Amino acid sequence: MRERDIERILVDEVKKLGGLAYKWVSPGNDGVPDRIVIFRGKPPVFVELKSEAGRVTSLQGAQIARLTELGQTVRIVRGIDGLSQFFQDLGRTFQDPRFEETSRALDCRFDL
């Protein structure tokens, strides 16, 4: 599955859960993660999306390291399986079963 397809699914599922998935474009700061995912009362999560075979560039790695050093959560999501895992992890982190339900729904929808 292409990166843009995975990104669209991320945005749609976050929206269904009542959150926002802002596209992050930062002029003069190439390599920032693709999306900033925000839910009410929860810390933001920066998300770099990749296809199954996609690789993080050195510039992206540097930006991810910079954000991580500032105490921010950055997730690299690879493929639809990685997206399912992302929602499962959010469910555990936020202690909210709705995220794990989203993960299970993706597993069923895409035969994971």
Report on the structure:
The chain has 112 residues and is an alpha+beta fold. The chain has helices spanning 3-16, 58-69, 79-94, 97-109, and strands at residues 20-23, 35-38, 45-50, 73-78. Strand 3 (45-50), helix 2 (58-69) and strand 4 form a beta-alpha-beta unit. Helix 3 runs antiparallel to helix 4. The protein starts with a helix and ends with a helix. The mean pLDDT is 97.
What general form does the structure show? globular
Largest sheet: 4 strands, mixed
Number of helices: 4
Average of pLDDT: 97
Number of strands: 4
Placed side by side, the strands forming the largest sheet appear as: 1-2-3-4
Question: Approximately what portion of the residues adopt beta-strand conformation?
Answer: 15-25%
Order of helices and strands: HEEEHEHH
Report helical residue fraction: 40-55%
Q: What keywords describe this structure?
A:
single chain; four-stranded mixed beta sheet
SSE topology:
Blueprint: H1 3-16, E1 20-23, E2 35-38, E3 45-50, H2 58-69, E4 73-78, H3 79-94, H4 97-109
Parallel strand pairs: 3-4
Antiparallel strand pairs: 1-2, 2-3
Helix pairs in contact: 3-4
Question: What is this entry, summarized?
Answer:
This protein is of the alpha+beta class and 112 residues long. The protein is built from 4 helices and 4 strands; from the N terminus they run H-E-E-E-H-E-H-H.
